[in-house]
Design brief:
globular, eight-stranded mixed beta sheet
């Protein structure tokens, strides 16, 4: 059984918060070998939404949706656990993240900073590249935008 949850930082249980931070560190810090600050102030901004995919009673995928200072909505920290990669859950996660942005930040363009190898995936969801590739935390990224 699968279950998507959309919660604010303060709605997350202690166990959910632990699972989110652990999976983010496992993927972004350990697996991708990026010893950078993973947990930031955006996590606890009251309007930030945390999208959790729970499968087999554990966190399998995650994304966060938030409002940027420029007025756009943003989706970030998108990740799929190693055992779920290739299962198709990434599309479902992004569908939920897009619905979250539309519900909580309506009528705003949606920005992402995507790892460049994922550009075709995000293009299938309607995102368009709006920058050249650049290094972020030692990994090549590209800025992408989805206009409503």
């Amino acid at each position: 059984m699968t279950n998507f949850k959309d919660k604010s930082f303060y709605e997350l249980s202690h166990d959910e918060l632990f699972d989110v931070f652990k999976l983010r560190v496992d993927v972004f810090v350990v697996e991708q070998n990026c010893p950078y600050h993973e947990i930031d102030e955006v996590d606890r901004v009251p309007s930030t939404r945390h999208i959790l995919f729970i499968g087999s009673d554990r966190l399998q995928a995650y994304a966060r949706c938030y409002s940027k200072e420029n007025g756009a909505a943003a989706i970030g920290r998108v990740l799929i656990s190693a055992e779920q990669r290739g299962s198709g859950i990434a599309y479902k996660l992004m569908e939920n993240a897009l619905a979250c942005c539309n519900a909580h930040f309506p009528n705003r363009p949606i920005e992402i900073s995507a790892q460049t190898y994922l550009q075709p995936f995000y293009e299938k969801l309607g995102f368009k590249a709006v920058s050249e590739a650049y290094l972020e935390d030692g990994i090549e990224h590209i800025d992408m935008l989805l206009k409503l």
